[in-house]
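FAQ
Q: What does a multi-component entry look like?
A: The components come first, one per line:
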Amino acid sequence: MENNRRNFLKKSALLGLAGVAGSLIGKEKLTNLENISAALQETGKFELPKLPYAYYALEPFIDSKTMEIHHSKHHAGYVNNLNKAVETGSFSGKSIEEILRSVNANDAAVRNNAGGHYNHSLFWQLLEPNRYKMLPLPEGTLRDAITTQFNSFGEFKQLFTGKAMSVFGSGWCWLITDAQGNLKITATANQDNPLMQIVAEQGKPVLALDVWEHAYYLKHQNKRMDYISDWWNVINWQKAEELFTQK
Ligand code: MN3
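Then the predicted structure of the entire assembly, as C-alpha cells:
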C-alpha cells in the first residue's frame, strides 16, 4: 500500500516535470533520442516513437512496406514486451540507458527488448530521405575524425560494409566512440548494443545499421550487400555528427 502511494507520488512528480519539458521542447520531443527517457516518465511506460518522416520517404533505397512493418510491428513489439518485462522488479521506473548499462546476460526478456527499443529508436533517427540524389557524406568534426582514423571516407565505407556483411545471423553494425574517444567499427548479436556492459566492445553509438533480415528481406531478399549499399544513401549524417559531438 505504502509502496503504491510512493510510486504514485513519484509518477505525479515526474509527470509535472515532463509536462514542462514537453511544452518547451514541442515537436522536437518526438524526434530526439534523449527523450526516450522523457517519454517513459510522462506515461510511466516506454512508447513507440513516431518516425521523423513517412514510411515511403526512404524509397527507392528502403521500401515503404519494410519501413511500416519494421516500425509498427517489430519495433512496437519490442516496446510492448519491454514494458511487460520491467513492470515489476529492479528495472521498474529506470531509464532505457540505465537498463541497458546494467542488464544481466541471463535476463533475456529485458536484454532483447530494451536493446530492441533503443536500437530501433536510434536507427530511425540516423536515416533520412535522400533529397539530392547524391551519396550523402559526413560533415564537420565527424568527417575529420573518420578521415584521420580510416584514411578516407572510401576506406571507412569499405570497412564498415565488410563488418556489416560479417555479422552471422541477426545483429547490428555500429560506428562507436570508445572510452578514449577513438572511432571504432563494431558489431553486436541480436539486439545487443555498445551501451551494454555485457558486450565485448563498449562505447557511444554514432552510426547504427540493423542487419536483421526483417530490415531488408521484402525488397532485397537474401542480398544483404544490396541493402547495405542502399543504406549509405539514406544516412542522416547531421544526426551522426550530433551523436559524435554530444558529451
Ligand atoms: Mn530491426
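Q: Is there any commentary attached?
A: Sometimes. For this entry: Residues 70, 74, 120, 210, 212, 214-215 surround manganese (III) ion (CB under 6 Å).
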